[in-house]
Amino acid sequence: MASTSSSAALSDSFRSSVPEGTSRKPRSWILDRLDSLLSKELRQGTPSALVRNRVLAGSSVLLLLLAVISVVTFPEPGLRIVVGILCVLYGSATVMLRRVKSHLLPASILCAASFVGGGTLLVMLRDGAPYFGTHAGLMLQPALAVYLLGARRGLFVALAWVCVSLLFPFYYTQFGQGARGLADMLLWPLYFCAAFSFFSSWGLGSLHSSALTEAQGTIERTLKELRDSENHLSSLIESTDDLVISLDTEGRMVTANTAAKRVCQKLFGQAPVVGHSFFPEHLGEMRELWEQRLSLALAGQRQRYEEEQELDGVHMTFDISVNPIHDTEGRIKGVTVFARDITARKEAELRLGEMHRTLVDVSRQAGMAEIATGVLHNVGNTLNSVNVSTTLVIDKLRQSRLPGLSRACALMEERTPDLCRFLTEDPQGKLLPSYLSALSDQLQQEHTAALKELRSLSDSIEHMKFVISMQQKYARTAGTSEELYVPQLIDEALRLHAVSFENLGIRIERDYAGVPPVLLDRHRLLQILVNLLSNARDALISSGTREKRLTIGIHPASESGRLLIQVSDNGIGIAPENTARMFTQGFTTKKDGHGFGLHISALAAMEMKGRLTCSSPGLGQGATFTLELPTAAEAPAERAFA
Fold first, then answer.
1. Of all helices (H) and strands (E), which one includes residue 326?
2. Are strands 506-512 and 303-311 parallel, antiparallel or unpaired?
3. How far apart are CA 55 and CA 50, in angstroms?
4. Does the pLDDT value for residue 625 go beyond 90?
5. Cα–Cα distance, 483 to 481 (Å, whole number)
6. Where is the PAS domain (predicted)?
7. Cβ-contact 534, 373 below 8 angstroms
8. What is the per-residue pLDDT for 583?
């Protein structure tokens, strides 16, 4: 099959080399006649071998024709016999070409017959001109032998002609008519030149044959590489389920893979045909649309579309890209169309969008629950303080010396008639002033302690009122963006944890830089801050360190100009292998954790066009959570862009 393709390619190359405006029929007729003289094996050779076999067939026929003409025209009977033998040899070579698998035997017979014929003519025409050895026909013999037999076999033919050219002067001067011995000094140099010419003819033919063989080998290797590349590309195109189509500048199909043909058959009602317009006339609006797209592609514009089609009653979505094809000089010579079925991806995106909205709603509810939990926790701690203060006040009142004052007053009331004598003369009465003085001091201390506890009770009640009112305020404003001053919001988040931080002995350090306000959802930002503070508190509790320190910093980002909120602690820290998983849903390092708080905080940060990250030197070395937020100046630009 490969040889047949090569022969056909060679014939096509011959025909394509004919100048425009000339008739190609005579050339094709001659090539067909020459091919008819060759066997099937000789016709199916490589392109160079086919050319050589055609030359061999043409030479055999031509020499046979010349030999037949010579038989008729030569008057000498001896020459007729020799030429008749040559006719038989040339005819045998011509007949063999129809039967043999290799050209070597017919070529050897042809070269041998040519040598015998030429040598015989030299001998039998000894009475003719002595310069017959310079004849151009004889000079072609070594070159023809090299072309037909190869350089090594052709060397024997060339050496035979060299020997003839060197022996003929001696034979001519000794046996020819009008022999002049060695007196004629021009004869020998002439035939030495002839011998050199024969050898040079072989040498030039060998060089040409070697160059031709090398060039042909290079061509065949290149063609093989091209075929392999084409087969590889074809296999690659056929192995994909995507639609791959190549069109020329007129919109005619050059190639298309099986997937494209199958879809086009369903979509257009007919499969595309190579060389025909890819979009049939009956498509109407679709044809006009694609003509516009092809025009843009031929103008050098790359395009990408998402297009919906209905195939076999199924609604499908395709991602289509139309790109120009450039040749080596940068000129556009066609268009490629790639189409991918993204129906499943679109459905998955819809489901993912629904899941995302559901998750956002859940995260908001979870965030509200997180804040509500913090509120309840703080209110509970405050209620504990209220309970302690109330108990202390009750205990103080129960242990109060106030009943002693009542008894002293009753005693004085009984002794009202002789009160002065009672206070100055009666032993019990003499003790009453000092008793009242001591009782006054005791009651004053009890009064001071009661006021202190009542103030604490009042502060606790005020704190509960603040926490509850703040929760109500954030519940009302959730989902709306407003201009916020971050330091103020952080202080409010700290107040939600104030009691627990104080009871645990956690020292708060603030590092607030001058930063612009932000335009964000107050509820979401508070949700993140409360969660980060809760995590820091839990990390400090788990660490068991005596000096519990929590640092909150606010800084502008040096590169992006955005706002950075950093919550750092010297708690238990994070293992390096867990750092990348801290915001993954369901991942937690706490024994009683649910792995949801940091995840919803990260989602809330993303919804606010921000980002939440964490870092830690390692276990036991604390951790830092960084919340990156856009400033209020960025929000108008983002909304305008959206």
1. strand 314-326
2. unpaired
3. 9
4. yes
5. 7
6. 229-263
7. no
8. 82
Q: What are the C-alpha distances in Å from 257 to residues 234, 237, 242, 249, 468?
A: 8, 6, 9, 19, 69
Contacts of 477 (CB under 8 A, 6+ apart): 521, 522, 523
Question: Judging by beta carbons within 10 Å of its beta carbon (0-12, 13-18, 19+), is residue 129 exposed, middle or buried?
Answer: exposed
User: What's the CA gap between 195 and 199, in Å, rounded?
Assistant: 6
Of 374, 632, 377, which is closest to residue 527 (Cα–Cα)?
374
**Pairing mode, strands 623-629 and 563-569:** antiparallel
pLDDT tens digits, one per residue of 307-365? 888 777 778 888 889 999 888 888 888 998 988 888 888 888 888 878 777 766 666 66
Q: Using an 8 Å Cβ cutoff, are 606 and 564 in contact? A: no
| The domain made up of 240-341 is a member of CATH 3.30.450.20 | yes
Listing DSSP states for 474-507 in one string gives HHHHTT-EEEE-HHHHHHHHHHHTHHHHHHHTEE
Outline which parts of the chain fall under CATH 3.30.565.10: 479-641
Separation CA 420–CA 415 (nearest Å) = 9
**DSSP character for 614?**
E
d(CA 343, CA 315): 8
Q: Which fold, 479-641? A: Heat Shock Protein 90 (3.30.565)
With CA atoms as reference, report the closest residue to 98 among 186, 161, 33: 33
Burial of 236 (0-12, 13-18, 19+ CB in 10 A): exposed
Q: CB 104: neighbour CB atoms within 10 A? A: 13
- Can you read off the two tokens belonging to residue 104? 């070597």
Ramachandran area for residue 312 (φ above 0: left; ψ -120 to 50: alpha; else beta):
left
| 212-237 confidence digits (pLDDT tens) | 778 878 888 888 888 888 888 888 88
pTM, two decimals, is 0.41
How many residues make up the chain in this entry? 642
Angle at CA of residue 206, ends 200 and 208, nearest 5° = 105
Helix (H) or strand (E) holding 81: helix 77-96
CB atoms within 10 A of CB 38: 21
Give the residue range(s) of CATH 3.30.450.20 domains in the chain: 240-341
Q: Alpha-carbon distance 510 to 558, whole Å?
A: 20
Exposure letters 536-557 (e unless 16+ CB within 10 A, then b): bbbbbeebeeeebbbbbbbeee
